[in-house]
Design a protein that fits this description.
Blueprint: E1 2-7, H1 26-31, E2 35-42, E3 53-60, E4 63-70, H2 82-93, E5 102-106, H3 112-126, E6 130-136, H4 152-164, E7 173-179, H5 191-203, E8 207-212, H6 218-232, H7 239-248, E9 253-254, E10 270-271, E11 277-281, H8 283-289, H9 291-296, H10 302-318, H11 331-339, H12 341-345
Parallel strand pairs: 1-2, 1-6, 2-5, 6-7
Antiparallel strand pairs: 3-4, 4-5, 7-11, 8-11, 9-10
Helix pairs in contact: 3-4, 4-8
């Protein structure tokens, strides 16, 4: 069985690090004898990566869009190129299966239609039967009527594409995984909206379970080593990846990792143990629940997806159907409701 880890965007401040979170699975997949093909739905244009072959290209609304096959010998910018660094890391850790490669394609260039064509090429070329879509954060679970959506287009394009691929395409298994649950507070997604999404997806039969990421586990140690290796070769620091590492190691509350202090103020990042978990969902159920998926599914170009989202959101707002900012009740509110003001005054 071949397992493919496709990447989703998770936060608007750049990154495209979601494919990197697949390193949390990589050692166990190797033990099981699986073949892994990585795809980076990146926030960096693959045209900026030199020494990488264009394996797919077609015309976009504003110019050509492509996918490149990136190796450790490829070169990117000094600021951002995790695809190259992942390849060099895997070459070092698993020299017997080197050279390793990652497919890189620009997240803000693809629609469901174009990404489906690209994925079908990969599936056929590598005989892929399983797709695991990995999201750093929880904005991939948003329905579309919440107050804050994170990065809805990029996530929904990937989830919807995965949901539409079927046995006729060679796909037998597909998963949406979420790590860093709650990190998208930084991206205007409330915890209450994320938890409500999990509840509603569970009621629809789409929640497939969750596991804790233990700080002593070999997979986490492998992931942390990979992040350090990436940072050695580029100046960009991922808030998601650095915050995930800190949360898994036990940081709690308003805490910013040293690597991100130039990007994030202390009161913008709140860490908690739920980030140190991996949640699994059926992408078909997630897409079926999603209004955004319905809005963008037939768009040919990425820009049309943005237009559709903006138009539908305006219509919802005009009819009073955008939900207000949603918060988890505070302990004071719960005590007030149970005991009245007397308990709190004591």
């Amino acid at each position: 069985m071949t397992v493919t880890l496709w990447a989703l965007t998770s936060f608007s401040c750049g990154g495209g690090f979601d494919f990197v979170h697949g390193m949390l699975l990589y050692p166990e997949l190797m033990k099981l004898g699986k073949k892994v093909v990585y795809g980076s739905f990146s926030f960096g244009s693959p045209y900026n990566i030199q020494g990488a072959e264009i394996v797919w290209e077609e015309k976009g609304l504003r110019g050509p869009i492509c996918a490149k096959k990136v190796y450790a010998t490829s070169t990117g910018t000094d600021n951002y190129c995790p695809e190259v660094r992942i390849c060099s890391f895997l070459d070092k850790k698993y020299p017997e299966t080197s050279p390793h490669f990652v497919y890189a394609y620009y997240a803000r260039a693809f629609s469901v239609q174009s990404l489906t064509r690209l994925y079908k090429q990969f599936i056929q070329e590598h005989d892929i039967d399983t797709i695991v879509v990995i999201d750093g954060g929880s904005d991939s679970l948003m329905k579309g009527d919440e107050s804050g959506l994170g990065d809805p287009i990029e996530d929904c394009v990937s989830v919807t594409t995965a949901s539409l691929l079927s046995a006729a395409d060679g796909i037998r298994h597909k998963l949406l995984l979420s790590v860093g649950f709650g990190m998208d507070r930084f991206n205007n997604v409330s915890d209450n909206d994320s938890l409500r999404a999990v509840a509603e997806i569970t009621a629809l039969g789409g929640f497939l379970g969750s596991v804790s990421i233990e700080p002593s586990s070999p997979c986490f140690k492998f992931y942390k080593e990979c992040i350090d290796h990436i940072y050695e070769g580029q100046s960009f620091r991922s808030v998601m990846a650095s915050g995930l590492v800190a949360a898994i190691e036990g940081d709690f509350g308003y805490s910013v990792p040293d690597s991100c202090k130039e990007r994030v103020r202390t009161n913008n990042l709140y860490l908690w143990p739920m980030m140190a978990m991996m949640w699994a969902f059926d992408p078909e159920v997630v897409a079926k629940r999603s209004l955004v998926s319905q809005w963008i599914q037939d768009c040919e170009y990425y820009e049309q997806c943005n237009t559709a989202l903006e138009e539908k959101r305006r219509n919802l707002a005009a009819n009073g159907k955008i939900l207000p900012i949603s918060n988890v009740p505070t302990q004071e509110q719960i005590l007030e409701g149970r005991f009245g003001g007397n308990r709190i005054k004591k």
